[in-house]
């Protein structure tokens, strides 16, 4: 009699524990087929509620969907949260290519580039300057006139800068030719300093202004500019105390 009561009490004590274990198993493994759960246990993953949730095999099983018939679509588990960012099929992205930094475009050579695009400074910019001068004469509004004048000044500045650059290149080319001849004659090579090149450029500019007859005008403009520059350092007059 006592033994029977003890057995019943033991069985009653053990029933809640088994039922407590079975409920998490059903909750955790409800979306996984029974065959896959058995395979996880055989592989050493342990029971479903504790260990396999953190194991790689369990996570792989969650990611692998199953279907009863091969012709039916794949059904995702309803227990998995929907990702916030969905993967949308997009068109292939076209990558921008800058030819300046692409090896397929070759090496940049400044002199060759200047020769190929010399028509911009020889033809297009002078023609644009003439058109802007005519537009400036026709324009009456102050705002539009100031805008056209700014464009004309920009074009004239580009033309002058290109002329000065070509002049410097010509001076350097002539100096290099002289040095090659001197080296062939047995003299030591001489490298022209930047200050000497600037002096030679000023001499050529002075000769060009003298030949065109605008030397006096350029010298007067230079004197006014220097006088205005020196005037900044002259102290102002003080007011007499009354």
What are the SSEs and their pairings?
Elements: H1 2-28, H2 34-42, H3 56-63, H4 110-116, H5 118-138, H6 142-184, H7 194-212, H8 215-231
Helix pairs in contact: 5-6, 6-7
Description:
The longest helix has 43 residues, at 142-184. The protein has helices at residues 2-28, 34-42, 56-63, 110-116, 118-138, 142-184, 194-212, 215-231. The protein is mainly α and 242 residues long. Among the domains are: 19-71, no CATH class; 109-191. The model is unreliable at 1-29 and 48-53 (pLDDT under 50). It has eight helices and no strands. It is 62% helix and 0% strand. Helix 5 runs antiparallel to helix 6 (142-184) and helix 6 (142-184) packs across helix 7.
